[in-house]
Amino acid sequence: MKKILIGLLFPFFCSAAQAGTASGTVQYIDVRQSDGLIYFMINGTNAGRPACAKMPYWMLGNNSNSNTPVVKQQLALLMQAAATGKAVNVSGTGNCGFWIDGEDVNDIQLVP
Predict the structure, then answer these.
(1) How far is CA 72 from CA 69, 75, 77, 81, 100, in A?
(2) Interval 33-67: pLDDT, tens
(3) Please, which residues bridge with residue 57 across strands?
């Protein structure tokens, strides 16, 4: 029974371990008109990103979700950080669902 339980829980622990992080100032923010995709880069080191995240940028949304309150809040936080030169901490979802080579954002924290 223990082996079955461990086997069932193992993928959850592995996927959580693959989520990336980054800390630093905002290098740029891009909002594409063609599909609503929002992506950005951080002046800092990315760590622990999934294999699909071959590029250093991070993804906030596309047509299906870029209009949600959370995405708007995250974009506002990034814009504030870029305007003031303050650093942010970013953590990812471990997935590249919005774009094939950039990790989707889970959390953005403004560093005081």
Answers:
(1) 5, 5, 9, 14, 22
(2) 888 889 999 999 899 999 999 999 999 975 566 77
(3) none
Per-residue pLDDT tens digits for 3-33: 554 444 444 444 455 899 999 999 999 998 8
Q: Tell me, what amino acid is at 59?
A: M
DSSP states of the chain: -HHHHHHHHHHHHHHHHT--EEEEEEEEEEE-TTT--EEEEEEEEEES--TT--SS-EEEE-TTTTTSHHHHHHHHHHHHHHHHT--EEEEE-S---SBTTBEEEEEEEE--
Q: The CATH number of the domain where 6 resides is what?
A: 2.40.50.110
Q: Which range marks the domain in which residue 19 is found? A: 2-110
Tokens of 28: 């740029």
Q: How far apart are CA 43 and CA 8, in angstroms?
A: 38
- Counting the structural domains of the chain, the total is 1
Structure tokens at 107: 């959390």
